[in-house]
Amino acid sequence: MKEKDRGQHAEYMMIYVCSTCGLDSAFTETEKPVCRYCDEPTEMKLISKEKITPELIEKRLKASTERMLSNLQSAFESMTEEDKAAFGDQDAEKEMLLLLAKAKELKEKIAQLKLEDPDQKQE
Ligand SMILES: [Zn+2]
Description:
Blueprint: E1 12-18, E2 24-28, E3 44-51, H1 54-77, H2 81-85, H3 92-112
The chain binds zinc ion (ZN).
The site of zinc ion has 8 residues, from loops.
């Protein structure tokens, strides 16, 4: 049995997909959905609504590190001479590789993460 409705305590995670860039972002029902990837307001379509559980948070966390890593990787692969020049005196490739290594490390840490819901133990 659970205590109900303690003010603005969020209970659901709603996933919206942006109609402009096609990427999805998660919000709780108390938040206003705004695309996290577009700079301007876009139309956000609700694609799923799930009760917030540790498993769900874990799933989202893993999905977003996965995405971050692949974004970094493709940024690295598509780096132009101009991009490299922006690093100034630093070695652009070396800096990017360091960043990638850190992102991979983070991803591995998150992959090992096990979140537990104390309420669900008895089920
Ligand atoms: Zn967008």
